[in-house]
């Protein structure tokens, strides 16, 4: 069902500082900042030859990333994103297998403008998984 690794997301306390680190210290190509109000975050993508790193900063204290950072004040890996061909079919198969989809269970538009869902980390060895339709 899952395809390529799309990105690994890292929650950060300061997106500007994290972007500078990746750009100037690691020499990576980084995107412009995008605000995703529906998800409560500002994001930057670090482009790699074989994948991406998504840097996430909370918009405000109601953001899920703010909650994550409250528990992990230094930041850290937040989720991993895999590609799927059809988000609806993937969702149906996952629910039938007993997996929980976070939120209302319906796909939302992600940072790439494509449908995404998040899977409960307790169902996947403590890892929050995002699936993105490609």
Number of strands: 9
CATH topology, by name, is 2,3-Dihydroxybiphenyl 1,2-Dioxygenase, domain 1
Number of helices: 3
CATH level-four homologous superfamily name: 2,3-Dihydroxybiphenyl 1,2-Dioxygenase, domain 1
Q: Biggest sheet: strands, sense, closure?
A: 9 strands, mixed
User: Which architecture would the CATH scheme give at its second level?
Assistant: Roll
| Average pLDDT, all residues | 97
Intertermini distance:
12 Å
| Helix and strand run | EHEEEEHEHEEE
Count of the separate structural domains: 1
**What is the share of helical residues?**
10-25%
What this model shows, in words?
22% of the residues lie in helices and 35% in strands. The chain is α+β, with helices and mostly antiparallel strands and 134 residues long. The radius of gyration is 15 Å and the shape is globular.
Topology:
Elements: E1 5-11, H1 15-25, E2 29-30, E3 34-36, E4 41-47, E5 52-58, H2 64-71, E6 76-84, H3 87-96, E7 108-109, E8 115-119, E9 129-133
Parallel strand pairs: 1-5, 6-9
Antiparallel strand pairs: 1-6, 2-4, 3-4, 4-5, 7-8, 8-9
Task: Give a quick precis of the structure.
This protein has 134 residues and is an alpha+beta fold. It has helices at 15-25, 64-71, 87-96, and strands at 5-11, 29-30, 34-36, 41-47, 52-58, 76-84, 108-109, 115-119, 129-133. It has a single domain (5-133), classed as 2,3-Dihydroxybiphenyl 1,2-Dioxygenase, domain 1, CATH 3.10.180.
């Amino acid at each position: 069902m899952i395809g390529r690794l799309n990105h690994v997301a890292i929650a950060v306390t300061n997106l500007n500082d994290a972007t500078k680190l990746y750009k100037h210290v690691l020499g990576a190509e980084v995107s412009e900042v995008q605000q995703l109000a529906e998800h409560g975050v500002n994001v930057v993508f670090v482009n790699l030859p074989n994948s991406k790193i998504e840097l996430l900063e909370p918009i405000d204290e109601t953001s899920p990333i703010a909650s994550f950072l409250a528990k992990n004040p230094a930041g850290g890996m937040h989720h991993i994103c895999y590609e799927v061909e059809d988000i609806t079919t993937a969702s149906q198969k996952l629910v039938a297998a007993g997996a929980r989809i976070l939120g209302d269970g319906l796909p939302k538009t992600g940072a790439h403008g494509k449908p995404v869902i998040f899977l409960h980390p307790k169902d996947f060895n403590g890892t929050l998984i995002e699936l993105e339709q490609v």
